[in-house]
Structures are given as structure tokens and as C-alpha cells.
Fold this protein.
Amino acid sequence: MSKVFTKPDRLKESLKRYIQEISKLGIDSIPLVIVISIFIGAVCAIQMQINFANPLLPSYTVGLATRDILLLEFSSSILCLILAGKVGSNIASEIGTMRVTEQIDALEIMGINSCNFLVLPKITALLTFIPILTIFSMCSGLIGGYLVALMGIIPPATYIYGIQSFFVEWYVWYAIIKSLFFSVVITSVASFYGYVKGGALEVGKSKYKLRSCKRQRYHPTIRRLTNKTPFTIMIEVKNVTKSFDDKTILHDVSAKFHAGMTNLIIGQSGSGKTVLVKSIIGLVEPEKGEILYDGRDFLKMTLPQKKQLRTEIGMLFQGSALFDNETVLGNVMFPLKMFSNMTPAEMKDRAEFCIERVNLKGADNKFPAEISGGMQKRVGDCTGNCTKPKIPVLRRAKLRSGP
């Protein structure tokens, strides 16, 4: 939670996501809230009429009891339990999918605080909109009871008099305050399970068998650009070890990656290539060892230093890692919006130039689901290279252009 409640990297982008989350979590929930509340209000009115059919009780007790039930319990507690299913599953599935499809990894590589960028807008959006949903629920429930009265089960005038009798304003504020606490619990717990529990490791355990690797040393295959060019060590990995549960994936791995060269990590499936790459770029933290960037130990850097270093890395993911709710142009422009000082026109020109370079002109306004897998990988290439990174990293080059 400490990562969530921090200053956003770009306030403008966070506000944009905040508005989107209000629409998705709040406004889209209004029909569900109204329908359920009308039926609950109607049921409460019928049950009160049946159970309060006593000459010792005044006739307006039905309206009074229905109102207090809706204000004190249903519109604050029961409604939030219903929203936990609708909103909670939405949040957990969305963030879990982003974890599995490496969209969160892409944010981390850009140096963006993914917890803050993804979770904070959801918490604040539901926190600010849930009072409106609570009020909608109160009004809809009372209307549901009135509809029952119109059917002749209860005299309408008596019902209206009952909901007006002995009204306590604090009950309304009590329901709103209680719903605020529920909103934070719903969004934070759902985000936690999507972000942490719905990650690629859990999915991977059901698809692949991780196997232990013996002591190994990676020797990157190198293609020299020119034999006369002096090469310096850009990244050095020293005795890195990484395990998941009881499975050792990397054991005492060392390697050197030189500037001005094409460095390749080649190995059989399951040998730990991806884990090594993720350890180098900081997505996975090894148990021991050193990862040096120009002599600086990445594992000992402060958070701002890591963030600054990651802006120099351009990651081209195996699965493209495109944002589903952004167009092709929006995906390519995203790193520019977050880290460049370009004007909107300059960012658009740069993004369109990158898109044209990979022969995707005309696909700017299409969403990732509307283009082929090969086209998605080319868009991923554009996203990783649009900021002209110092250290481009590519996973599985043979899959870049499709079959």
C-alpha cells in the first residue's frame, strides 16, 4: 500500500485514468444498483406489511421500518457486498490479466510505479462515487416499496407518511460513511489479489513444470559490428541465484554484456533465460549476486536511481504487452507522454513515424484486439523504441515478425 499512495508520475495521465475508472466502476454499476434496490425495497415493504399486521402497531410502521432497513443496513452494507462481487471481480480480473500479459512488467520497465498507476485511480474513483451509488440505492429502495403500495398491498398515503415519520438525518450520513470504508476494502483487496495472486507465476505453475538447473554460466553469443571498435562492458551479472519456492531456476550465473554488440542469451526451454533477463532489468530480485550497470550495482540502487535507469531500457516483450484499452497510436505514445517533454503534436509525429517504419500506417486508431499477432509485435517494437532507449532488450527475436 505504501507504493499505491505516492505522488503519481504524471498527474495528467492519472486524472485521465481516474475518470475512466469512475465510468467503469461507478457509472456502469448504477443500473445494477437501481434494479436490485427496487426489488429489495419491494420485498422489505411486503414483509413488513405481513409481519406488522397487528392492531397494536400504527399502520405507518411499514413505511418507517422499510426506510430504516434501507438506510441503516441495505444501502450501506448489503449493497457493498453486492458491489464486491461486481466491482471486485472486475478489478481482480483486469489487473490479473495485465500481470499475465506482461503489461505490468512493461510499466515497471518504463520506470513507472505500476501500483500507483493502476490501483490508486481505482481506489479514489470508487471512494468518490460510492456515496452516489448509496443515495441511488436509498431512493430506488423507497420507490420499490411505493410500487408495492400502488398495487394495493399497502395504502400509498400511509406508506409515504411512514417514510416521513421520525426521520433521522444521521442515518443517511451513517450509511454514506460506512460505504466509504467498504469501498476502500473492496478496491484494495481486489487489486491485491489481481496484482499479487493473479500473477504469471501462478498461471505458469499450471502450464509448465519448473525444473532445477545445475550450476551454469551463460556466455552471450556476440556479433561484432566492426572488429576495430573498442567494446566496453555495459552490463555484468555476477553469481546470480534465483529460486521460486523449492525450485532453483538460476544458480551462480555470471555473464557480461558489451556495448556496441548484439548480445544473445541462448538456451533450451526451461533453462531460465526469461528469469535471467527479468533479473537483469529488475522485474525479479535474485536471492544473491550482483547486477552491474556500468559498474553500478542495480540491486543496491535507491528507488529513484532504479527509476532513472529504467528510462534508458527499452523492453520488447514476447507477448507485445500492449494496453487493451489504448489504440495502436495510444500505446506507442504512452512512454512519450510519461517521460518526454514533447508537445502533443511532436509526440504524435514521433509515434506515427515509428508506426510507419514497421509498415503499420493506417492502423493507428485500431485496438490491439483488432490487429493480428504479428502486427501486435510490431507495435510492441514501436513502443519499446519510440523513446530511443540506450539499452534495448528483446525476448525471443525469432517470434517478432510472426510466421
Remarks:
- The beta strands are 221-224, 233-244, 247-258, 261-264, 288-293, 296-297, 313-316, 391-394.
- The radius of gyration is 28 Å.
- Confidence is low (pLDDT under 50) at residues 199-228, 398-403.
